[in-house]
Every structure is written in structure tokens, then in C-alpha cells.
Known about the structure:
Helix content: 40-55%
Radius of gyration: 21 Å
Distance between the termini: 35 Å
Number of strands: 0
Structural class: mainly alpha
Order of helices and strands: HHHHHH
Oligomer: single chain
Amino acid sequence: MRTDKPLVFYNQELVRAFRNKPFTRPPQNFMTDNFVKDVQSMESFFSSHQSHEAFQNVLMSNLTEPWVGLYSGMHERSILKSGYHSRESIRLAYM
């Protein structure tokens, strides 16, 4: 069986009982409590940096950092410890 093709079930006997669950809402003040807003136009960015290399470094910086996937692991541990509906699990899911 090839794994690059989806397997779709149309048989109502198999899928009738499936129900979509509502998504949880992000915690109140999620963006302001968890992120720092530093919006900068491309023009001002390039005028304050010497080259396009600096821009590439910004775009690629997180690919070489050891914390890639950090929040995924924290989210999984929070789910195991406190369940899917805990405040911390929901907050980490939105990170």
C-alpha cells in the first residue's frame, strides 16, 4: 500500500458515528501574554541591516537552533500530565 495517497471511507456504516468536536478557543489575552510584537517594514529592516544575508539569517535562524520542536514536546507532556482540556495544554497547543 502506498503511503502518499489518502484512504477515504464513504461507507456510511463506518463513518455515521463520527462527530466533529469543536475547537477550543485560545486563552484570553493569548497573543499579548505570550508574544512580543515588533513589527518592522522590509524597508526599515534593510536600511538597518547591511545585506540580504542578514535577512536570510533571520529567516533561517530557528532551523539550526536546538529548541525546534520544544513546544510540541511540552504540549505532549502537558497532555499526559493534565489532559487535553487543561489550561496549560490548550495554551501550548496555540503556541
